[in-house]
## 1
Amino acid sequence: MIGAEGLKTDDLGLCFEHMIVFSAGGGGGGIGAANVVGGRVITDWKDIPMELLLRIVSLVDDRTVIVASGVCSGWSDAICLGLTRLSLSWCKNNMNDLVLSLAPKFTKLLVLVLRQDKPQLEDNAVETVANCCHDLQDLDLSKSFKLSDRSLYALAHGCPNLTKLNISGCSAFSDTALEYLSNFCRKLKVLNLCGCVKAASDRALKAIGYNCNQLQSVILGWCENVGDVGIMSLAYGCPELRVLDLCGCVLITDDSVIALANNCRHLRSLGLYYCQNITDRAMYSLAHGQVKNKHGMWESVKNRYEEVGLMNLNISQCTALTPPAVQALCDSFPALHTCPGRHSLIISGCLNLTSVHCACACAVQAHRAVHPLPHPAH
């Protein structure tokens, strides 16, 4: 038999025979001879204990797992009940048909990666996943250009336990469908909407900020319809935000950054690339927010040893910013580096910011390298 784009079960059997020996410490006679594993004699494929089978499955790639699930009914039952993670991103053709056939079998999946190089998935495949995989927590549908709002409506009803959703590049989704999804998938912690120009609107983000207050990471790169209303809704509704990418969100202003500085105390990474309405006012608000946050830190022993504040900031092409404001930010956040090899403050395209430097020891070392101290006279 041949499955999963050309892998033969004969090859699979040979592979598994070797794995049984090394995984369980059994004899080397192969299936058909007497192998003793854990005090149990194995003479046929169906005799392999479920625990051992799942251990072997964890060592092979996803294509092999799919073929293994078709070896016999015992293997099928064990794998289908025990498999919790599956990636089909290797599938270059017929991914839609593969999902339609596998989703009804692998009903215990927690993680499913359906990322594509070329669009293959259609709504009926996502609907099947939603109808069969109700425990799903992590779903990657990136670059699924063929999907429509039907997919989001199906996920809303079938997968309420989603904590991570990547729909980057799914340009056909509407903000109405995304708003609807947020009413049901309230456990979301990671949401990637990069390039979802229609779906990522202020209206949708208001709903997300209201419904999904556990969010920790939101990617909104090149969502050009997003404005201050949407970002401020996230800031007020999602205080646990740690990562926010607003790359290319050209409508946002200082008001968004000020809301983030005042409400999202755990913010670690902020992307403002090409947000040219951002001014010094935003930088000073971030720096001032950090000062207030440091005072609050002494109230918690748990947080005392935790590094606090921004660790990554991209302000490339934010040409209205001036050196004093950005330097104030650097002074407040020691984890922001401009030095070679440690760039976590990205300022490319801002020629007037070349004088800004780290507030750490490496800045002093760099200064000494350029201006060495004179040797004492003998």
Note: Residues 18-28, 301-306 have pLDDT under 50 and may be disordered.
## 2
Amino acid sequence: MSESAKPHHPSPQVKGEKTHASDFSYVGIDAILEQMRRKAMKQGFELNIMVVGQSGLGKSTLMNTLFKSKVSRKSVQPNPEERIPKTIEIKSISHDIEEKGVRMKLTVIDTPGFGDHINNENCWQPIMKFINDQYEAYLQEEININRKKRIPDSRVHCCIYFIPPTGHCLRPLDVEFMRRLSKVVNIVPVIAKADTLTLEERDFFKQTIREELRANGIDVYPQKEFDEDADDRMINDKIREMIPFAVVGSDQEYQVNGKRILGRKTKWGTIEVENIGHCEFAYLRDLLIRTHMQNIKDITGSIHYETYRVRRLNESNAHFKSQPSDQPAVQPKANGQPEVKPSAPQANGVAAKHEVMSHEM
């Protein structure tokens, strides 16, 4: 049989694989998206959310509602006799969540004791220190000579700040906290327990808060200066017009018109948490999880952490330059007598850190 008469057997095609044999100009660059997706699915994701606000504003309930599971500190470690701590305690708890094959390590950081005392002066300082401590831990891992292939990320990606539903204006504590912390972390303000306000009171309160934020130079997430293009600006402008989100949280399920819903049952009806006609919880959920999660993490890494990193490296360089290289460093021995050792920088080139500084602009 001649060569031309031999039957042609096409090569087997892998199930799900697209063929581009007919497209002469096809190179295959678009396949990188599928490669990135597979790698991301293997590695999983990390998200660290801090919740700040005085007791009784529904912080734990809202977090349980956001992720539809018991992820808050109080849900895991119930303590009915828990007293108000004398100082602000930073407590975090991590969970591994999986949905449709996508794995995420969620860490919820709570700040019990914030705003619960008669004198709340400088109560933001422990929170600022905690945030900077996480930046410092990441920096030390990053500059190690033999660093890990994947550095554990404990940096706070987002801080949800709970505003009491007074209906009047922000308290001095609210203004001071957001003014200072907005420079080091992404802040998303919410009006807690918004079902205690009428629609008119809610709209007036939201407008008042936006005006106070502008008057005090407080730039909450999404920050206008970080919009990447016109499309981003258009989307984020709509979000900025809704901030702060008036939210209601509930982890109680009810049946309404044959549908299972999360809500709060009252004498006059059921408040549906995910119904945008009842509250703005759905907008908050979409912002944090469905539309802006990666952007929140990107701004944490490329803006807030980068600002901290540059400052720390500049401080370390100034520290080493100020020390004469020809003079030995004197260090105490175990018996209390001075021991002379030649001074030398650390292998990573960054001096040991004794006090965490805020990196306010």
Note: Residues 332-336, 340-345, 354-358 have pLDDT under 50 and may be disordered.
## 3
Amino acid sequence: FLHRIGKNYFKVHMVPIKSTKSSGLGACEWLLVLISLLFIIMTFPFSIWFCIKVVQEYERVIIFRLGHLLPGRAKGPGLFFFLPCLDTYHKVDLRLQTLEIPFHEIVTKDMFIMEIDAVCYYRMENASLLLSSLAHVSKAVQFLVQTTMKRLLAHRSLTEILLERKSIAQDAKVALDSVTCIWGIKVERIEIKDVRLPAGLQHSLAVEAEAQRQAKVRMIAAEGEKAASESLRMAAEILSGTPAAVQLRYLHTLQSLSTEKPSTVVLPLPFDLLNCLSSPSNRTQGSLPFPSPSKPAEPLNPKKKDSPML
């Protein structure tokens, strides 16, 4: 029963489609064509200026005679002949056309809402098919690009949209070409121009990026501190073995101070004097130790002499 219903539905809907096909000119139409030709011959050569037009190299002409599309390919480039009273012609530009797609909202795979705009480059490939299938070419291409981009970008995350624009444009071109070839249009290129993020999403991304930068700065600073401490430890080991190197380092520090800050007055003290000032009895807790010459240890005298006052 369902098979019969589908078969009848198919027959009913196929009849008007067959009736819309052009069956050629009728008898009255052929009569009008002959009258027009006779009129052109009678008024020759004046009528020839109204029957011949020029088509540029980048243009093609489609001729409709009494509303019927003339068979054959489009006319041009060069001269073409038409009947002024019966024929109407339409020129189609075959050069590359640029269409700017306005901002429209999309939803990404990770559920972010964003706005994108794009630019589409296309050309007319089949003029006869184009005029017989589309009324507004730019609107049809614009809406098709918007719906195709929404469908493709719904399967990609925000990071992929920002980083993989080239592959997205290639996928969109293939998807558009599969549809526009039926209309006689060839899509040459499509590119995403700009991506507009909401203010809240921009703030969250900025905070995340700032946190990552701060973490990297801390890691680099920690690595620098570690390397500096290792260098200081090695330098301390080297200086502890050679006392003369400490004196040279001290003199080098004084020279650096006098060079960097000429207004500063530096009074160098000898190391021997510093050693005397930094004796164990005068050192306070937390002060830096200075190298002091080793003194011989005095022998302990367990027996103390009595004081003469006693």
Note: The chain has a mean pLDDT of 76.
## 4
Amino acid sequence: MASDGVITHRSVEVNGVRLHVAEAGPAGAPVVLLLHGFPELWYTWRHQMPALAAAGYRAVAPDMPGYGDSEAPSAGPDQYTALHIVGDFVALIDSLGQERVFVVGHDWGAIIAWSLCLFRPDRVKALVPLSVPFIPRSPAVKPVDAVRALYGDDFYICSFQEPGAIEAEFKRLGTELVLRKFFADRTPGPLFIPKSGWGSPDDEVPLPSWITEEDVKYYTTQLDKSGFTGGLNYYRALNKTWELTSPWTGAEIMVPTKFTVGDLDLTYNIAGAKVFINKGGLKKFVPLLDDVVIMKDVGHFINEQKPEEISALIIGFIKKFN
């Protein structure tokens, strides 16, 4: 691991699963655990890692279990519950020789980061979730059932549920085109992937300015190798997580937190989200919420679209808790 912002790579075994971990920054520095979302990799943090290292932190960015060069749990979707994945990251924190770390998460990484703080607040100094707010457990309805009732079977979370079906569609389109479609989407509303097909393999999708052809090539190469099933299994385990987490119904997140989302993010524009985030709902469940930042004209991939701003936001917040 280099102290000058150079990113190095190694493998770490946790709970019988081998994780690929990218690192930057001095070995003895405070650790910032960076958790990516779908359909990405450690690489989503390529801008933040050198910035954190330069600020005196040790940035640690794994490929999430099932992604890229990290192994996939072998027993299928039920091994991707929040309890399983959080357990892997507690083991990773232990392997780093840390009692407590800073945690930053985007998209599914944010969901797992919230869950880590819910289950093991003693291991987290402060939290910076991006894009996805804390979602309190409803005792009345399972999460997949809830979004299906709101948006129907073609809503992307619902489209992802049947094992093998969306994988076949992504294979028909090709990994690179699938990634281009996700990266280029700036519709401030629900994402639909119809079972009848998500367009033609001949579709041409220009990239937004914040991501390069080289970046997409790296993502494509890695996801061609690992496939999408690991990442999709997080969605398929949503209802199982709901079943297992009934003891935490109504529980609060007792970790200092700064939440950031783009105003064009589909997560910010889902039914009820703006009111929950801005009118006290999030603060009720996250009493130590320091601030909510809504970035104007910013979509879902916020840490890549606004790399310098997000790096400064992370460092400015966590330095209060060194």
Note: The first strand starts at residue 8 and ends at 14.
